[in-house]
């Protein structure tokens, strides 16, 4: 990362942020006006805040970073940006959860010319899956700064890593021994919370949520994925697994009560934390197993940065995005265990030293095979997840999956018609 103002301005010289964002802002306030960043209370935010003095020195403007929970953040955006507020400049957003809605509402500036017209920024260096997730209707609305993929956590003292989903199910059923306090597998079974993790099973069975604008969760591939997930947790999971979210499922594995657990790689610290884990020295990490369509896990931006379209500091907002997501910054933060989205960082083994070696290897494989979404890409994501999750619960509870999937397919089809109408109303 350039350490002098001259180096920084050279880095910025490939594109004029002011010209590219012309017309988005309403004039540029003086240097006494701070750049305001509204962000999630996340390890990435805390790491960047520690270095914010570097950026302030380079742009000669004070930066304030306010951190909120994910839900608080969404509420703050709804309140402020519905009123066209200018006291937010840089926005930390969940690209797959709210980006489409924010774009439809006109809250996010168009970054297409900025990222595409700046050779030194190297937009093509971002992994294709997270890069694709940053685009709405052909226009770039955010840049990814934190990514995640699923990983197969397993007990090395009980078994080896299965290479296929069929092997995973066989091993989980074989190791399932509730009488001895060990379940074959644990995972998210709660209706909406399970959808993101189930996506990798869906893709690896050859299915998808939506195909050509139409619901695809009633397809044979999707039904097979529903049946598989239900069988895995229904036959080998703990009691009450149908109601488990991340907060309930993760401790079951960390306390040594399950042989397998599929969930996001971002939570690995809780799995190996000596304060919360009883199996930290017995945990193995493996890539997502291959299904009938191969290993097709999600590889998504869990958090991204955008610019408030009403900001009066458009140019410095872009400079912040460029600095915070630069190759040097991504590599530096990834070396601290915060996975980024740049190919160059993942290709540099030195940036992976912040992760257990076996986990780093699994993450690289999953990133290479990854799909850029872990939920339906619609405006009303919460409602879509609720519909998609119904057959999941049916499968875990041992109920017939095919009728539940067909009913959900009809419901999602009707929802997509309404959602598309909302999308077109600008």
From TrEMBL:
Protein origin, superkingdom: Bacteria
tRNA-binding as UniProt keyword: no
Secretion signal span: 1-22
InterPro entries: Bact_solute-bd_prot1, SBP, TAT_signal
Organism: Crossiella cryophila
Record-linked Gene3D superfamilies: Periplasmic binding protein-like II
Keyword annotations of the record: Signal, Sugar transport, Transport
Name by which UniProt lists this protein: Multiple sugar transport system substrate-binding protein
